[in-house]
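S2.1 Query sequence (Type 1 glutamine amidotransferase-like domain-containing protein)
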Amino acid sequence: MSCFLWQTQAIAVDGGEARIALAAAVDGKELSMSRLFLASSFADVSGVFQQWVGEELRGKSVVFIPTASNTEKVVFYVERARKAFAKLGMTIDELDVSTAPRGEIVRKLGASPYIYVSGGNTFFLLQELKRTGADSAILEEVKGGKMYIGESAGSIIASPNIEYAKDMDDCAAAPGLDSYDSLGLVPFYPLPHYTNFPFKKAAEKIIARYDSQLNLRPISNAQAIAVDGGEASVLAK
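Output structure tokens follow.
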């Protein structure tokens, strides 16, 4: 059985941006991971993303997957994310995997250097990713070098398994989901909206229930987890 070890490497404040650098290891060996930016609220940390990414974003294309929001009544965060990418000068290529043909999913994921997955219902999102084969297509692209940007539910599905999110999202929204095994892009479990209304109590309940079992990584709306190779950092605006 593998054990995931997180070691604090450095704590620094640079221009008001707090960073806590962490290294991931499996049984004491460094774990190599792709580049990911996992946020609670992308619009709130888009400036942090711009500083961290290390390249000119203007004119670059991002595949924008809003599917998780399809079951939700409150969806303002989707438009906020669109505006945040537009402000960065990026071109948005919309892709709702729940309705797009398989060929379109593969084509769009392959055409853009950035993949963004929005917030919403984590269980519905995973159901649709698996049903359409978009999960394997995303994995292939990320392992090939594409950057993955997750927001809320989009961050949670980067974990190995999403069952821990039941206190935050309604799993009944995904009646066709037969397994909670997720993308497994990281060996830890992002916990978005930590300390933020209206998810504060849900996040606290998840911590109380799973903290001794899972490698939870709580982040507030003002934070994000940036993963680059074998190193992950908690960044704050």
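The helical segments are 42-53, 76-87, 102-111, 122-132, 134-143, 153-156, 200-210. The CA atoms of residues 53 and 123 lie 29 Å apart.
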